[in-house]
Amino acid sequence: MKILIITRKFLLEIMREWQLVIMILLLPVVFLLITYFTYPGQIIQTYPIHISVLPQHSEQTDSIIASFEKAKYANGLAVFTVNQDSLSESIVTEKVHAHEIVLDIQLDTTKEPLTITILGDPLYQGYYQAINQLDPRWLGDNPIQWIESSITPLYVSGPQTNFELFAPGMIIFAILLLTMQTAMLITREIKTGTIRRFQLSGTKSFAIISGITLAQMVIVVLQLLVIGWISIALGFRIQGSLWLAFLIANLLALSAIGQGLILGCYLENDTQAATLGATAAMVQVFVSGAFFEMPSFPVFHLGSHAFNLFDVFPATSSMQLFSMTLSYNAPFAYLQYRLTLLIVLTLLTFAAAVIIFQCKQLQA
Predict the structure, then answer these.
(1) What's the whole-model pTM score?
(2) C-alpha angle 228/234/237, rounded to 5°?
(3) 46-50, 105-109, 142-146: least confidently modelled range
(4) Which residue among 54, 69, 200, 325 sits deepest, i.e. has the most Cβ atoms within 10 Å of its Cβ?
(5) Checking DSSP bridges between strand 80-84 and strand 47-54, what pairing results, if any?
(6) 357 Cβ contact list (under 8 Å, min separation 6)
(7) Cβ-based neighbours of 148, under 8 Å, separated by 6 or more
(8) How far apart are CA 126 and CA 132, in angstroms?
(9) Residue range 222-262, pLDDT digits in tens
(10) 305-308 and 298-302 as β-strands: parallel, antiparallel, unpaired?
(11) What is residue 236's DSSP assignment?
């Protein structure tokens, strides 16, 4: 009962600063809208190509052309739009430079084996995306030896737009803002003597920390509802389990609250809490890959899994899990390592926060 009373007390304190609550709820939405309008492109798209045969068609060239025409993604969308022979070389060159044709494929039957030349604009990103869709099996008995990129299947359950790819990162951004809010809240309560009065009344540190945590979890639920509703309205398709995503969000929230508690124990005023809390949150947002993919820096291996430099942050595993769950609906076997790592890091962070809070208050 005392925990609920403390939770209500901290909720009232949070709601008194309604401007901060609105910022925490709406700032991620602003970034979500920026993502929607900045990355409108499709991940799965049809690439216009031109195929010419020199000097004449053969059964083999017809088979290759038919393979290009039949190529489809798992959702039935055609991979290529094929134009054949009807365009002059100068027009094809002009269209390649204008990116109206992504690949110009020339099949030369005068040589044995058949010679295949693929031209395009290497400064255009679509050129490499189209190259990655080529399957050597389409070329019959003459596979292309120079293709280095592996064939990456695109599933119906995967993200089909850039927005769907980046949207889960906004959940990471939103939840990590709790680090700043928790640091400000605990700093103020320590400074005003509220925490000390709780202790003099016989309230245990566990009840105080539980009250702060439950109050912040209410904010987490509001964040998830707002971001989830707007994301779906903008076209995001949820592929996996919402319950699993909710679990991941709460684990990340616990780590963010724990970090805020640690900061709040060492700071003196709201300004310091806001500055350092926001800095800690934004560093983790960037290194977790929430805004853009980060390179890997392997430190050591845990079995078959590489532990990267930025894996020390719970946000990194959370971002991977949100992406695999919400965007790809990956089997649970693929999630076990990241989920275990997130649970361990969250428990360590929160346990450290509890110990530091208790030690600092006993010294007070």
Answers:
(1) 0.73
(2) 65
(3) 142-146
(4) 325
(5) parallel
(6) 186, 205, 208, 209, 261, 262, 265
(7) none
(8) 10
(9) 999 999 999 999 988 888 899 999 999 999 999 999 999 99
(10) antiparallel
(11) -
CA distance 310 to 24: 25
Domains of the chain listed by start with CATH number: 2-39+159-363 (no CATH), 47-139 (3.40.190)
Which strands, in side-by-side order, build the sheet including 103-108?
80-84, 47-54, 103-108, 115-119
Instruction: Please state, in angstroms and rounded to a whole number, the distance separating the CA atoms of residues 18 and 226.
Output: 16
What tokens appear for 254 in the block?
A: 């616990």
Length of the chain: 364
Helix (H) or strand (E) holding 276: helix 270-287
Task: Using DSSP bridges, classify how beta strands 115-119 and 103-108 pair: parallel, antiparallel or unpaired.
Answer: antiparallel
Specify burial of residue 117 (Cβ count, 10 A radius: 0-12, 13-18, 19+).
exposed
Distance from C-alpha of 120 to C-alpha of 8, rounded to nearest angstrom: 64
Say how far apart CA 351 and CA 208 lie, in whole Å.
Answer: 14
State both tokens at 94.
């002009």
What percent of the chain has pLDDT above 90?
30
- Both tokens of 214, joined, read 């439950």
Asked whether the predicted pLDDT for residue 60 surpasses 90, the reply is no
Q: Which amino acid is at 50?
A: H
Give the span between the Cα atoms of 80 and 229, in whole angstroms: 35
**Residue for token digits 């076997």?**
333
Residue 315's alpha-carbon distances to 28, 32, 179, 331, in angstroms, are 16, 18, 12, 21
Residue 124, token pair as written in the block: 């255009």
